Amino acid sequence: MDVEMKTETSAETNMNGIQALHPTDPNPPPQMQPQMQPQMHQPPMQPFLAPTPPAVSATSARPGSMPPQPTARPEKPVAHGGPTRQFLNQAITPHLLEGMKYLAVYEPEKPLLWLADFLKDRSKEVEG
User: Fold this and answer.
1) How many angstroms separate the CA atoms of 104 and 85, rounded?
2) In this predicted model, what pLDDT tens digit does every residue of 24-79 receive, in sequence order?
3) What is the separation, in whole angstroms, between the first and last Cα of the chain?
4) How far apart, in whole angstroms, are the C-alpha atoms of residue 81 and residue 13?
5) How far apart are CA 30 and CA 36, in angstroms?
6) d(Cα 2, Cα 30) in Å, to the nearest integer?
């Protein structure tokens, strides 16, 4: 690779045409900069082999090629989480989300006051 050398004020040239570094030169010429060390060759990674599924027993009710029969879907989703989370998800979250959707679309001047009034009105509708 040929490198074209430019004469700069921070470098001096000796008798053989080689630039000498000036003590205040922040950018040494490319041939004087440290070279990166080549990376070591790493062996290829072994492919991951998944464990073999267990064999289907002869007493099984259906063959392995037959898909399982769908079960009836529950009317309500199964409640998950602790009792506090279940209570909030059933009693509060649907109403709060509806109010927050309105806030995101219309951006009222006093959003907290509007949300408080919305929840108070919703409470009268739902709880009587």
Assistant:
1) 24
2) 555 655 555 555 555 666 666 666 666 666 665 555 566 677 777 777 776 776 66
3) 86
4) 77
5) 12
6) 11
The token pair at 100 is 């927050």
Amino acid identity, position 10: S
pLDDT tens-digit series, residues 80-90: 788 899 899 99
Whether 34 contacts 23, CB under 8 Å: no
Helix (H, G, I), strand (E, B) or coil at 125: helix
Q: Which residues pair with 19 in a beta bridge?
A: 13
Amino acid, res. 2: D
Supply angle C-alpha 79, 82, 88, rounded to 5. 70
Domain definitions of the chain by residue range:
100-128
Q: Are 122 and 99 in contact (CB under 8 A)?
A: yes
Residue 87: φ, ψ to 5°: -60, -50
